Amino acid sequence: MAIGVAQEQEKDTITYKTPYGLRLGIDISKPILGLADSDFSGFEIVGDYRISKNLYIATELGYEKKTTIEDYTNSTAKGSYLKLGVNYNTYKNWLDMNNEVYLGFRYGFSAFDQTLNSYTSNTGSTYFPGELNTTASTTKGLHAHWTEFMIGLKAETFKNLFLGFSVSYKILLSIKDPDNFKTLYAPGFNRVFESKTGFGFNYTISYTIPFINK
Amino acid sequence: MKKNILFVFLITMAFSACEKDDICLLPNTPNLILRFYDSTNPTEVKNVERVSVWADGKDTIASYKSVTLDSIVIPLHVNATETVYHFKMNSTSGNIADNKYNKITIKYTPEDVYVSRSCGYKTTFNDVSITSDNGWVRSFTPSTLITIDNETAAHVQIFH
User: Fold this and answer.
1) No. of H helices and E strands in chain B?
2) Rg of the Cα atoms in chain B
3) C-alpha angle B150-B156-B157 in degrees, rounded to nearest 5
4) Does residue A176 sit in helix, strand or coil?
């Protein structure tokens, strides 16, 4: 009796493994902006943790100090912020490449102080122009909450080392204004536009501490 | 789909980059508005002729130099609690001998009120009281304290 063994052939595919782990980095645009612009200083730490093939839990933590100079007011906002959310990678990598083009969503929270350094009353008159009032007044305990939609990319330049860039569109949920003044800048949110929206970007360099390859 | 999201994102950014808070279009510090009436017929507006207006220690206001009109809009000094204005008029001729003078003192408590990013602060005037040295001005209203926080109507009616 002849036994025909139909040996099942193994599938001719190789699954490429990519690392899962904690990626930590900094926003390098803020120190550079701080050097170029004496009215700004700040830093931001970024981190993400990969939870599935295309999904990352992402966060940003930072501190900013920004002086806003308008025609009739000069004010400084300083404080810290935290953003928490997810990034969804839409980029299909080749082989074992590990780059990202992602869509992100964040919830942001910022706690800060704002100081009105000086102001001039807007008289609209040259006959009796307003004089500069330099009595500074600080309002502590201001805060802002917002949501943020972002588009970004991350490219692996060396093993586990990533360069990233992202832009974001922010919508305020709530903001606390000082009495008889307005919050013109909120750390993490940036300039507060009249329409309660804002924009941001960052340029990051980050490193993955791989826990496991999957 | 991806392209669509990107497109919507870019369009949103492009259109929301220009904001109305870049240009100040809101009212700022209100001026004092005076309206002139006939003292013998107080409901009738009456022009003051060849009137010149200047504040204490300052030059004549360029737009009020020997002009004939029925109302005057003048700024108040926002960083003081008092502004003194001089009104020179001449209802008979251009001769210096016929000039008539009147001094009006306006006392107030200024208050700076925040308007917007581009407009900054405006000053409103509370507890405004007005006194006249009885030159060519016969009388005026109101005699009570007023608040000047807008320019929608004349604040002071002057009878002459």
Assistant:
1) 1, 10
2) 22
3) 135
4) coil
Q: Which residue of B has its CA nearest to A88?
A: B2
Q: Does B60 touch chain A (CB under 8 A)?
A: no
ipTM metric = 0.80
What is the DSSP-derived secondary structure letter of residue B139? E
Please state whether beta strands A132-133 and A137-158 pair in parallel, antiparallel, or not at all (unpaired): unpaired
Which helix (H) or strand (E) element contains residue B14?
A: helix B2-16
- B24 CB within 8 Å of a chain A CB: yes
Question: Cα(A7)–Cα(B121) distance, rounded to whole angstroms?
Answer: 86
Each residue's pLDDT tens digit, A195-210: 899 999 999 999 998 8
Number of other residues whose CB lies within 10 A of the CB of residue A143: 15
Q: For tokens 């569109």, name the residue.
A: A169
Q: Is residue B83 within 8 Å of B128, Cβ to Cβ?
A: no
pLDDT tens digits, A27-50:
999 999 999 999 999 999 999 999
Q: Which of A182, A197, A199 is the closest to B117 by Cβ?
A: A182
In the numeric block, which tokens belong to residue A168?
Answer: 């974001």
Are the CB atoms for A87 and A102 separated by under 8 Å? yes
Q: How far is B102 from chain A (nearest CA, A)?
A: 20
What are the domain boundaries of chain A?
19-122+139-213
Phi then psi dihedrals of residue B69, to 5 deg: -160, 170
CATH 1.10.287.370 is the classification of domain A19-122+139-213: no
Instruction: Specify the pTM.
Output: 0.82
For residue A128, which of B84, B146, B72 has the smallest C-alpha distance? B84
Q: Residues A93, A94, A99, CA angle at the centre, nearest 5°?
A: 35
Please classify residue B159 by burial: count the beta carbons closer than 10 Å to its beta carbon, then call 0-12 exposed, 13-18 middle and 19+ buried: middle
Residue type at A80? Answer: S
Q: How far apart are CA B90 and CA B77, in angstroms?
A: 27
Nearest CA-CA partner of A156 in A85, A83, A95: A95
